Q: What sequence folds into this?
């Protein structure tokens, strides 16, 4: 099987090879931000309606004066935005959510200074998403350094997460009892309880929690389920329905070009998608065949006029999918840059033609921060074992085995092999006994097999005892893997920020904010 190319690496090292797929240019070059800003100045946006709705929403969130000031700046024609987005995971979900938010905040501040005009950070909460598996569980490190889950009950019922209620805090708190005690633990859990009790739905719970983490810098949150935002997007919903065939063709063409270069497509349509959902009340994909529009797995059909009338009357029932959400974003906001994760970068590469279909140009894609957090204990263990982060990523099984064998002062395998050879010799000397009876041969074979079975058992027990003698180093290696690669994957994709905020307080977020922006996914080591 042919190995697929890595788009992150290609974008960082050979941007010209993928320039077609990222038409606003290399995110490492400031001239591309200047060119993008000039393009956005030719566009018009419903700034007053956006700002009015955002102001009301953030008043309910109790947002900072800094955030409210940035919302007011959106009314000005020269104001641009840097935006990112993510599903409304519980307690903000994995660490990369915080890294996305901080990249967006930092990039907006940087471009405000370089462009000498207002640039504000926005976090698009995917409240319309109904992918329950993406948001219902998060993990934190317990006292033993193990990643343990905190999850929501149920299955979401196919509803958008923004329509789901926050569970009773007690059901969450009971799952957080394993968070190690510290000077910050009680106050952090108190804040989390406050947000859970204040929120009307999972989206607000997410916004309140993330807002608290980044309150020092200010961040505007966007909830696409709010009715006013739905009404603002309605004209583009109608255009998407009208041009659904053109969208499909544009996506197919750009995807073929992406695959031809050796990349794996993230979006793989099955055919018939219109790239919009309709709530009935569960969220169902709108499809099209040669005769009419219909909902996947649902009775009923519409022609284009009837469906447009439904959208115009009840736009709150309509939502975009992965193909059209970025286009809706482009329609609503003067987007200087979008901050994606690695998977998003892949599917955005397939969307350039879709943007062109609606007369838009895709924004600059600026990769989010990628970070591995290293506690003092983990740093000490890495140094003591002369290991690198890459060693941990590759797995420590061989290193673990080598450590155990290096502390074997009794030459366990050598002694057992000598015994095995003696046994073989001994049974060979018994072969003349086969003359006694026709069955003696079988008896000898079976008996020798039993002896070897016991010898194998003895070998396992001896190595088990040897590993117990090496328990200190093995525990150290296990803690490294549990902390740096929990659940056998990257830390930032598994652990919740509370793993570190409950231990170090909000100074942990301060440390994240100090990391330099690189414009690629190169990994930073955050040493605590």
A:
């Amino acid at each position: 099987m042919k190995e697929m190319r890595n788009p992150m690496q290609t974008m960082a090292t050979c941007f010209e090879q993928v320039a077609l797929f990222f038409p606003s240019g290399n995110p490492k070059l400031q001239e591309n931000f200047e060119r993008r800003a000039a393009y956005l100045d030719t566009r018009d946006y419903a700034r007053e309606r956006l700002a009015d709705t955002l102001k009301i929403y953030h008043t309910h969130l109790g947002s900072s004066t800094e955030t409210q000031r940035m919302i007011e700046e959106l009314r000005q024609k020269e104001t641009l935005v840097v935006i990112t987005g993510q599903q409304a995971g519980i307690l903000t979900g994995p660490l990369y959510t915080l890294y996305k938010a901080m990249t967006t905040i930092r990039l907006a501040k940087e471009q405000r200074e370089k462009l000498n005009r207002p640039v504000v950070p926005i976090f698009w909460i995917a409240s319309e998403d109904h992918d329950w598996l993406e948001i219902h569980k998060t993990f934190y490190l317990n006292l033993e350094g193990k990643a343990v889950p905190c999850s929501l009950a149920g299955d979401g019922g196919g509803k958008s997460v923004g329509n789901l209620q926050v569970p009773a805090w007690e059901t969450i708190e009971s799952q957080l009892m394993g968070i190690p005690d510290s000077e910050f633990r009680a106050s952090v859990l108190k804040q989390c309880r406050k947000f859970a009790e204040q929120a009307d739905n999972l989206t607000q719970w997410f916004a309140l929690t993330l807002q608290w983490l980044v309150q020092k810098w200010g961040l505007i949150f966007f909830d696409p389920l709010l009715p006013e935002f739905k009404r603002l997007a309605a004209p583009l919903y109608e255009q998407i329905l009208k041009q659904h065939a053109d969208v499909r063709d544009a996506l197919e063409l750009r995807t073929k070009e992406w695959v031809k270069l050796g990349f794996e497509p993230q979006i793989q349509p099955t055919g018939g998608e219109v790239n919009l959902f309709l709530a009935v009340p569960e969220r169902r994909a709108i499809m099209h065949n040669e005769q009419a529009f219909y909902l996947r797995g649902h009775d009923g059909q519409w022609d284009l006029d009837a469906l447009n009338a439904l959208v115009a009357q009840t736009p709150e029932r309509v939502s975009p999918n992965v193909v059209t959400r970025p286009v809706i974003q482009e329609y609503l906001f003067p987007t200087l840059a979008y901050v994606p994760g690695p998977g998003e970068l892949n599917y955005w590469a397939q969307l350039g033609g879709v943007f062109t279909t609606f007369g838009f140009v895709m924004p600059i894609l600026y990769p989010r921060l990628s970070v591995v957090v290293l506690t003092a204990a983990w740093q000490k263990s890495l140094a003591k074992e002369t290991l690198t982060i890459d060693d941990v990523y590759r797995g420590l099984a061989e290193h673990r085995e080598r450590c155990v064998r290096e502390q074997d002062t009794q030459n366990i395998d050598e002694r057992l092999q000598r015994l095995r050879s003696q046994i073989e010799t001994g049974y060979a000397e018994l072969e003349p006994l086969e003359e006694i009876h026709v069955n003696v041969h079988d008896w000898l074979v079976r008996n020798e097999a039993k002896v070897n079975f016991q010898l194998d058992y003895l070998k396992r027990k001896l190595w088990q005892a040897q590993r117990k003698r090496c328990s200190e180093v093995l525990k150290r290696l296990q803690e490294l893997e549990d902390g740096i690669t929990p659940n056998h994957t990257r830390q930032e994709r598994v652990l919740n920020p509370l793993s570190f905020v409950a231990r170090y307080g909000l100074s942990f977020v301060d440390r994240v904010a100090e990391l330099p922006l690189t414009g690629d996914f190169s990994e930073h080591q955050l040493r605590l």
Observations:
- Residues 379-490 form one domain.
- The chain has a mean pLDDT of 93.
- The two ends are 42 Å apart (CA to CA).
